[in-house]
Write a sequence for this structure.
């Protein structure tokens, strides 16, 4: 039993450019946790390379690894703060490890406390803080040694939705302010949508899909990805309700429109109804903002002469919006 | 009044004996604290999945601890006579009791230390490792501070056991309140002496219990 080896991550190859927020999403057991722990070698890889700033982490011996780890920040689902230390002392801990002098340490900690918005709580103990505040301490602590990359291990999974948004906003602002590369893992699509530039979807230790968040959202390829995307648009679950509108009538078509990026902001529907002789009945729609622009879905019923309906569809497609005509199955 | 109730008690003897009991208890508590933490850390760190995972050292330490815990204290004193003679140069008086007291109590405390260390959140240790901490940083800045309340309540329990050990050591000539109660009280049928010695010992136990509870609460910020 104890010598059994489990291959939690198998043949995963990912490139992350500097300054990017990269998300890895997967259900529990997908290997995403192992993936992120490989980056700072909390797990040892059986083979392969982990290159950070031209240095192969996987090949490092104990001492250089220790030094390198000081430059890799990490925050955790359960915060992992020392309860025996105050907020100030917790943030000072990595600086003590790196051997930073006391007065320099104090200056840096004050700076970080301000950055994460915890001014006035320096002398509180973690037990006196809320979950969100604890994670702010975790973030400040992870930034203490000016890391080249920040690893977030399910950093918002133990927080309520509102606090999650606050923490994600903080991560985005840190990413912009410090041009810090952030790698995060999560099981919530919402987190990916809100902060990530690119995303990889993991399943059974392998990456089944990766790319720009917007592309993955709009055209999910694998089944897992589709399920994750559905988490976000409640409309997908209500598709049955459109049934009564989908008829064999030639003078009516129900279509699903995908708006991506700036297209989401155009008044396309009114344009179409002005230019062509069709009546458009809006059935339901939603819009989701992402780091790389918004994307939306809209279900409409187009009524008119069959030929004109086709023209309308072509017009919409020509403006860069994807159109899917719904039929009875 | 006092002389009516306790006709055979000589207060100067009582104070000397109290001083000796305090002396033996405090020195042996300090010794037990240090030796126990060393042994406890060794037990914990060499355990599977921990920092210095080493099953050989772990099982040797565990056996030593178990053997010494299994020996009744009164027999341990007798067994250690030659060692004590070599170390302290005498087998009588408070100093002679110290080796047996520490060796008797440290293994017991080591187990309490091990339990306390096991309670430290693994995630916090991992966080320190992720920050690039050295082993000694993890020991002195994470493991010991994070388990301090349990370490203190453990040494309190051990201290009270040690007070009772000092009384037992007293019976074979180590001095202290146990010695006084046995020699001046029991042997001479002066039960007022036995009674007053008991009261003193109980008060000492209460003092240690109070100090232990108070400082354990003081360091606990959970």
């Amino acid at each position: 039993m104890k010598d059994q080896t489990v291959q939690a991550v198998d043949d995963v190859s990912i490139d992350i450019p500097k300054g990017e927020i990269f998300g890895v999403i997967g259900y529990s057991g997908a290997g995403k946790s192992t993936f992120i722990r490989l980056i700072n070698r909390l797990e040892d890889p059986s083979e392969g390379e982990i290159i950070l700033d031209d240095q192969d982490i996987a090949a490092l011996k104990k001492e250089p690894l220790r030094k390198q780890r000081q430059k890799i920040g990490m925050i955790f689902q359960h915060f992992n703060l020392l309860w025996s230390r105050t907020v100030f002392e917790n943030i000072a801990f990595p600086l003590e490890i790196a051997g930073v002098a006391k007065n320099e340490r104090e200056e840096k900690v004050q700076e970080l406390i301000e950055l994460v918005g915890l001014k006035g709580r320096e002398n509180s103990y973690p037990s006196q803080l809320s979950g969100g505040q604890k994670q702010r301490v975790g973030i400040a602590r992870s930034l203490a040694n000016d890391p080249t990359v920040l690893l977030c291990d399910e950093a918002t999974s133990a927080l309520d939705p509102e606090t999650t948004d606050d923490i994600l906003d903080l991560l985005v602002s840190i990413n912009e302010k410090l041009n810090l590369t952030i790698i995060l893992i999560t099981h919530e699509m919402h987190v990916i949508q809100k902060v990530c530039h690119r995303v990889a979807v993991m399943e059974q230790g392998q990456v089944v899909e990766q790319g720009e968040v917007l592309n993955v959202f709009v055209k999910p390829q694998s089944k897992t990805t589709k399920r994750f995307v559905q988490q976000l648009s409640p409309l997908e679950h209500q598709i049955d309700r459109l049934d009564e509108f989908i008829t064999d009538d030639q003078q009516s078509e129900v279509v699903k429109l995908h708006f991506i990026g700036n297209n989401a902001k155009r008044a396309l529907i009114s344009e179409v109804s002005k230019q062509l002789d069709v009546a458009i009945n809006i059935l339901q729609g939603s819009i989701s903002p992402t780091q790389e622009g918004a994307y939306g879905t809209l279900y409409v019923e187009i009524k008119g002469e069959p030929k004109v309906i086709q023209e309308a569809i072509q017009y919409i497609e020509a403006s860069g919006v994807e159109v899917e005509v719904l039929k009875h199955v | 009044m006092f002389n009516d109730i306790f006709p055979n008690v000589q207060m100067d003897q009582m104070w000397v004996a109290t001083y000796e009991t305090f002396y033996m208890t405090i020195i042996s508590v300090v010794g037990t604290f240090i030796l126990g933490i060393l042994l406890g850390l060794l037990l914990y760190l060499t355990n599977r999945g921990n920092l210095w995972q080493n099953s050989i050292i772990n099982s040797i330490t565990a056996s030593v601890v178990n053997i010494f815990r299994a020996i009744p204290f009164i027999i341990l004193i007798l067994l250690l006579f030659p060692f004590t003679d070599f170390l302290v140069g005498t087998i009588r008086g408070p100093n002679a009791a110290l080796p047996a007291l520490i060796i008797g109590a440290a293994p017991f405390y080591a187990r309490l230390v091990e339990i306390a260390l096991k309670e430290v959140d693994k995630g916090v240790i991992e966080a320190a490792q992720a920050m690039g901490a050295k082993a000694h940083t993890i020991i002195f800045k994470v493991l010991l501070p994070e388990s301090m309340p349990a370490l203190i309540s453990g040494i309190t329990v051990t201290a009270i056991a040690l007070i009772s050990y000092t009384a037992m050591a007293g019976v074979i000539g180590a001095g202290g309140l146990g010695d006084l109660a046995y020699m001046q009280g029991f042997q001479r049928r002066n039960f007022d002496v036995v009674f007053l010695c008991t009261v003193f010992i109980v008060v000492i136990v209460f003092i240690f219990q109070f100090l232990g509870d108070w400082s354990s609460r003081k360091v606990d910020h959970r």
Observations:
- DSSP finds ten helices and no strands in chain B.
